[in-house]
Amino acid sequence: MTTNHNYKFVFTVFTPTYNRASTLYRVYESLKQQTYHDFEWLIVDDGSIDNTSTLIEQWKKEAKFPIRYIWQKNQGKHIAFNYGVQEAKGELFLTLDSDDACLPEALERFQHHWNSIPVTQRSKFAGVTVLCLNQKGKVVGTEFPFYVTDSNSIEIHAKYGVIGEKWGFQKTDILKMFPFPEIPDENFITEAIVWHRISKKYKTRFVNEKLRIYYEDTSNSLTNSSIKCRVKNSKSARLYYQEYSSLNLPYIWKYRGVINYIRFSFHAGVNIIDIIKDSQNQDLTTILLVVGFLFYYLDCFKLSRTT
Questions:
Q1: Per the confidence metrics, is the pTM higher than 0.85?
Q2: Among residues 241, 176, 170, 179, which one has the least CA distance to residue 202?
Q3: Which of 143, 221, 254, 283 keeps 20 to 30 A from 271, CA to CA?
Q4: Rounded distance, CA 261 to CA 292, Å?
Q5: pLDDT value at position 2?
Q6: Residues 231, 299 contacting (CB under 8 angstroms)
Q7: Is 187 helix (H, G, I), strand (E, B) or coil?
Q8: Domains of the chain with bracketed CATH
Q9: CB–CB of 240/193 below 8 Å?
Q10: Which string of b and e fits 261-296 if b means at least 16 CB within 10 Å?
């Protein structure tokens, strides 16, 4: 049982979903097979119009673990995530997407790796992250530099060059401190904005153990990193790159961050004076202003040809 008396379970397994009745069974079947049972399954439905609710009601009647289902109007995965964090009854918050699966020992191994962090050091950690396999059994992206690497999401990419989809939990209390920004009329912001914010204060234990099955090339997901999506959510993209360009990163990455900050500032209708004034690096922003504008112009040209 959880050691934090504010929570009822060790884990909240959280699934945000949108019209995924055809794949949601992967999560359900995975949870039925878990070897560790101190968890709840919390689903936040981001406005599905398929038979998701009927399916979950059926599972609630037969499942041997608690299932909670919350429906909200379509607002985006980040809004569903914030809602889930506030509703969570588990001390550790683990997101398992509505089209993915995990190994039967996943929760047991997560608990093992969390407990392997010395109690005197655990307050410095936000959570544990592991590797993913795709549906063909191949590791997604690259592995961490050591079997156990204590680092953070900024350093793990910038210093060690780790890429690709990974999977992990965070302490619910910490996630409550770092909610996703909610910008009116925008329904997407990259998850990295939260992981970067957390990285400035907390470590993560990265482990080269494969526990999630990540189904690649699926459609109708709640996230979308295409240019069209980022232009539609340009204020969110601007905010992300504004913060990204201030991180301790290789110079080429920092330049890219500043260029994208300028680019999506133009998409958001921000004037040149405010683009420079609001930048985390005003000198570099001034130097790269024309480059950022050219990317903005190219976006507009490409999008005009697809409408």
A1: yes
A2: 170
A3: 254
A4: 8
A5: 57
A6: yes
A7: coil
A8: 9-214 (3.90.550.10), 227-306 (no CATH)
A9: yes
A10: bbbbbbbbebeeeebbeebbbeebbeebbeebbebb
Q: For residues 185, 189, 194 and 197, what is the CA-based torsion angle, rounded to 10 degrees? A: -90
At 229 the three-state DSSP class reads helix
Phi/psi for 188 (5° steps) reads -150, 135
Rounded Cα–Cα distance for residues 152 and 145 (Å): 13
Token pair, residue 133, equals 């396999």
Strands 125-134 and 203-214, by their bridges, are parallel
Cβ-Cβ contacts under 8 Å for 266 (sequence gap 6 or more): 275, 292, 293, 296
Q: Which residues pair with 149 in a beta bridge?
A: 206
Helix or strand (DSSP H, E) at 230: helix 227-232
Query: For the packed helices 289-306 and 251-267, what is the interaxial angle rounded to 10 degrees?
Result: 60
Distance from C-alpha of 307 to C-alpha of 303, rounded to nearest angstrom: 7
CA–CA dist 25, 51 (Å, integer): 12
Question: Residue for token digits 């965070």?
Answer: 170
pLDDT per residue as tens digits for the range 151-172 = 999 999 999 999 999 999 999 9
Beta pairing partners, 128? 169, 205
The answer to whether residues 86 and 93 touch, using CB atoms and an 8 Å cutoff, is no
Using alpha carbons, select from 17, 16, 41 the residue that is nearest to residue 29. 41
